[in-house]
Amino acid sequence: MAAKKRRNSVKKLVRKSASRTRARKSAAMKSGSMKSDVTKSATKATKATKPTKPTKATKAAKATNGPAIATAERRAREQFLLEITSLPTAAGREERVIARIEAWVAERADRLVLSRDRIGNLTIARHDYLEACARGVKTGIKPLLITAHLDHPAFVVTGMRVVGKGRAAGVELDLEFRGGVNDPYFVGSALEVFDRVGERSCDARIVSLDAKTDPVTKPFKTVVARLARATDAAVVATGSIARWKFPKAEVKDGLAHTHACDDLAALAAALVAFDDISRDAACAHVALLFTRSEEIGFIGAIGAAREGSMPKGVRLLCLENSRSFPHDSPIGAGPIVRVGDRLSVFTPELTNRVGDLAAAYAKDHVSFRFQRKLMPGGACEATAFASFGLASTCVCLPLGNYHNMQDIDGVAAGRAKARVGREFISTNDFHWLVELLEVVARRIDDPTAAAPHRALMDTLWSRHARIVEANARGA
Q1: pLDDT tens by residue, 141-151
Q2: How many Cα atoms occupy the beta-carbon half-sphere of 15 within 13 Å?
Q3: Whole-model pTM?
């Protein structure tokens, strides 16, 4: 009964507010002074959210010739990158990204098929993928899954109510935040709230934060946000996604500034690379796995491992975006073969193989760049998969404004005011990641591509074992 009264009060306020809005618009149009609300809002957002100024390290890509790729293809890939990373998404609310992937697969239905497991993870593979996996049991070629996750830290609406009376009345939203962002970045920040189908959005601003959490009763931080216009309550529903309000995604000075690089930039790279990989029958054992709800604890990856739905002997190449540290893992110096995270080190044999392939390829292709780092700033799905005994490793893109937080260290030290901003990556790093994925998919089982470390150990033994053997004999 109480919930019904709240809904009725919201509807009543919306009708009153809409009537007042029509009256104001009519008066403004007569005087010729009315401006578009959309134009005002966009101008305000642009002024309020300036992208972080890139450091010298982020300009490293401009000092090289960059990836060897035709200009038209480069632009097309970057446009696709901006499109994918601009899609609203949150843990458990990944529908818009999934819909775009479904459309992408449908355009390639002659060779690709999309399937789902019980918890909604997506697998994209050639039609003959299962047959290739079965052949691999006999030939020793194990399946390879390139993985990325579908979500990004964001808000989900859990309730709505009218506050105040008369002209001071408004609508407040209750939202839970699914992801990891430090407390100072919340109160006062502008939000963009979407309807359930993603066709419309409206503005709101956070007025309070409850940062307390409990694993059982309150697993997420929660906020209260006030809608900019009460009439926008007609757009919002329980389950709607909200995210930080930013200007439109763009490529500027070799950097892609966009809403959600983590992990949608990696997802975009996987799709671009697989479009080419999947045309090669010799790579029929390679597929894509896109997981859900990584930002709240690797839930999709854990579910995939627990379900046992992946092929026997599978190897997982997990793609991520990881916080860049300018003097150690600079943006623009190439994608990073990640040997571990803050929780674990990854499967050594697989990590070494990917790193060796990258090094061998870089030696023969002067325009290619990559890095090899631990990246302890966070944890990724490679750790989750490895916990279940699956061979896994990671390749990540070095990321600026991690989880949309500008100047994380400066804010933590009290030197800077907390401001949210668009995440950014180097477009060169993105193109190099696509290039690396194609190399790994085609050559991971090629014994001539890079010598295994055991071969190096045997060579060293054959050269110098006589020294210790002679000493042991007393010679």
Answers
A1: 999 999 999 99
A2: 5
A3: 0.86
- Each domain of the chain, given as residue ranges in start order, spans 2-41+154-244, 57-152+249-450
In angstroms, the CA 212 to CA 219 distance is: 9
pLDDT at 40: 37
Angle value at C-alpha 382, between 381 and 386, nearest 5 degrees = 115
Query: Alpha carbon of 309 to those of 288, 352, 372, 422: distances in Å?
Result: 14, 26, 31, 36
- Tell me the HSE value of 219 on the side-chain side, using a 13 A CA sphere: 8
Instruction: Give the gyration radius of the chain's Cα atoms.
Output: 25
Task: Record the tokens describing residue 131, joined without a space.
Answer: 């047959």
Contacts of 82 (CB under 8 A, 6+ apart): 249, 250, 251, 256, 258
CATH architecture entry for 2-41+154-244: Beta Barrel (2.40)
The separation between the first and the last C-alpha atoms of the chain, rounded to the nearest angstrom, is 95
For the structural domain made of 57-152+249-450, what CATH number should be given? Answer: 3.40.630.10
Query: DSSP alpha helices (H): ranges in 260-320?
Result: 261-277, 299-307
For 122, the enclosing helix (H) or strand (E) is strand 122-126
